[in-house]
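To: structure desk
From: M.T.
Subject: fold request, one chain
Message: Could you run this one when you get a chance? Sequence is below, nothing fancy, just the single chain.
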Amino acid sequence: MKTLYVGNFPYNVSEHEIRQAFENHGKVHSVKLIKERETGRPRGFGFIEMDDTSAVSAKEALNNTRFGGRNLRVDVAKERSAGIAR
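Reply: Done. Structure tokens follow.
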């Protein structure tokens, strides 16, 4: 399974809308939209878990495409370093 970073989506997008866009390219295991801690407002990026081949297909098909009036940025997420606490 791969995790994709998805950035530059509209602030009013729902997890359901993101899931639908990516499900056209394979099974989506999870969608996590990142929100500001204090306000709960979306920050315009998130992470999607998909099977390896589906993730590659989705990245190639959706990177730099228009979604809600903005160009999506889709890339394989970088691994978090051990020891980084939030």
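Reply (cont.): The chain has two helices and six strands. Let me know if you need anything else for the meeting.
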